[in-house]
Amino acid sequence: MKKILLLGNGAREHVVAETLKRSPQETEIYVVGGALNPALRDLATDYLVEDPCDLEVVREYAEKIRPDFAIPGPEAPIAAGVVDMLLEIGVHSCAPLQTVARLESSKSFTRDLLAKYDIPGNPMFKIFYSEDGLEEIFDELGDDFVVKADGLKGGKGVKVSGDHLNGREEGLAYARECLADGDRVVVEEKLVGEEFSLMSFADGSHTVEMPSIQDHKRAYEGDTGPNTGGMGTYSDADHLLPFLVEKDVEDAREITSRVLVALKEETGVEFKGIMYGGFIVTSRGVKLIEYNARFGDPEAMNALPLLTSDFVAICEAQISGKLDEVEVEFEKKATVCKYVVPEGYPDNPCKGDKIEVGEVPEGVKAYYASVDEREDGLYLSGSRAIAFVGIADTLEEAEKLAQSAVGSVSGPVFYREDIGTAELIQKRIDHMKEVRG
Ligand code: AMP
Ligand code: GLY
Question: Distance between CA atoms of 427 and 402, rounded to whole angstroms?
Answer without folding.
Answer: 20
